[in-house]
Amino acid sequence: MTCHAIVWPRAFQRSFSNLCPRQRREHGTSYTVPTIGVCITCFNRRERTLRCLRSLRQAHLPSGTNLVVYLMDDGSTDGTTSAVQAEHPYIRLYKGNGSFYWAGGMRLVYGEALKDQHDFYLWLNDDVELLLEAIERAIFTLNALRRSVGGEHLIVGAMSDRDRLTTTYSGLVRDSRVFPWKLKRIDPDPDEPVECETVNGNFVLIPGEVAQRLGNIHPAYIQMHADLVLGIAAKRIGVRNWVMPGFAGICDANVSGRKNWKTPGLSLRERLRLMEHPLGAPVRPRVAYSRNFGLWAPIVIAAPYLTLFYELLFKQCKPEKTD
């Protein structure tokens, strides 16, 4: 983990010399201003999604920079689509049928954004409430790193819980010298960017040329791992990952109340069924993810099953009771 010294100004600059707008056509309209393609996917979190979009609309941006927002609503039944259309008619809204999940929804909107060849891309979770200067600070961090260390970089914005006491999402570093897939989240430094191995996808700023080189999310990923693979793939082509100074926003840890394969008291059959659910630990995404770890791939694939059988054997999980 590297903490890189940068002299920060008292107030973030409103214009950046490294922003070089390019002439292009976007859905039939020519424009030359720098743009950020913001990619979001949502499902049945109407109020959280609206809060996220309001914070995005109020965000401070470098002078002359525009946002183009791509939102996938994956079959929400709580009125998210109509509420977004009424309050944010400028958003490019895509509708799913409930089968896309996070990685699938992001793949669709990110793919659409890539077609428009933006200067930057921002992966943003729909439950994030941005701090006003978060996007501006991310771009300043990127440009400062370009000047001081050269090359290209992904910029991660760390998230805190609502009480500002705990880092909930951020960059990640290796947590083991032996097992390369074991990762731990790091806290942001208040003043300097901190280098990391890979990223949580709640807030990630991606330079346009890097995004085009990396391409879209692999179709094997359904819910998890797509953000981790983004950071791993970036490092593979010489792009460095950094957590920008301070927090980018508020995002409480996502704790689901739904039954999953780790829920105590379930039968082995039920656990295996839930493990293959998109929100569990299905085989196909794990196989794709495991390819990032060379000879360790079989262990990465088998890890959930080893955990399951360990719990069954040593923690004496009881079968699910039936009436």
TrEMBL record:
A Pfam family per the record: Glycos_transf_2
Organism listed in the record? Bradyrhizobium canariense
Q: What is this protein called?
A: Glycosyltransferase 2-like domain-containing protein
Query: Where is the Glycosyltransferase 2-like domain positioned along the sequence?
Result: 38-175
Q: Which UniProt keywords apply?
A: Membrane, Transmembrane, Transmembrane helix
Q: Which SUPFAM superfamilies match?
A: Nucleotide-diphospho-sugar transferases
Instruction: Give the residue spans that cross the bilayer.
Output: 293-313
Query: Which first-to-last residue range defines the signal peptide?
Result: none
